[in-house]
Write a structure and sequence with these properties.
Rna Polymerase Sigma Factor, Chain: A, 2 domains, single chain, globular, mainly alpha, Arc Repressor Mutant, subunit A
């Protein structure tokens, strides 16, 4: 990657950090853990810059890296700690962070039922498309389409491009 391309890539990532913070807070429910997650993912994204294909969806690429890193870190912690006995720590989020989470929740709730279910199975329960398709009784391609449309609608709503997904 040329010096100019790398500088543009870093600038793009820097501009993307606020969105990453909202995602991380939604995953961790803890401001400090969210900041750690954002920093870890930003480093991973910078190190993996050669694998990003220009012209493709940067947001989806970074989000996938974050989800995978978060899942790996949770699995690693489970190996070393009994999470059921760990105390729950509540850290109050800033007003901006709470607003971002509320906005994401509102956007999610506006999704059509089938898209919400598909996104829940794939994104939150981490089922494979095959497992989720079997659980819902629909074809894998149909499920992939529902997840894609759900993500697109969420992205549009979060960016203020549309008001309602229904």
């Amino acid at each position: 990657m040329s010096e100019l391309a790398m500088r543009e890539f870093r600038d793009h990532l820097t501009g993307f950090l606020p969105k990453m913070r909202v995602w991380a807070l939604g995953l961790t429910q803890n401001r400090e853990a969210a900041e750690d997650l954002v920093q870890d993912v930003a480093v991973k994204v910078l190190l993996a810059n050669e694998s990003f294909v220009p012209g493709t969806n940067f947001s989806a690429w970074v989000h996938k890296i974050m989800i995978n890193h978060f899942i790996s870190s949770v699995r690693n912690k489970r190996e070393h700690n009994d999470l059921d006995q760990a105390p729950e720590i509540n850290v109050s989020a800033s007003q901006e962070e709470r607003a971002g989470i509320r906005e994401l929740n509102v956007a999610y709730q506006r999704l059509p039922k089938e898209q919400k279910e598909a996104l829940h199975l794939i994104g939150l329960q981490e089922q494979s498309y095959e497992e989720a398709a079997e659980a819902t009784g629909c074809a894998v391609g149909t499920l992939e389409s529902r997840v894609h449309r759900a993500r697109t609608l969420l992205r549009e709503q979060m960016c203020g491009e549309i008001r309602d997904a229904a």
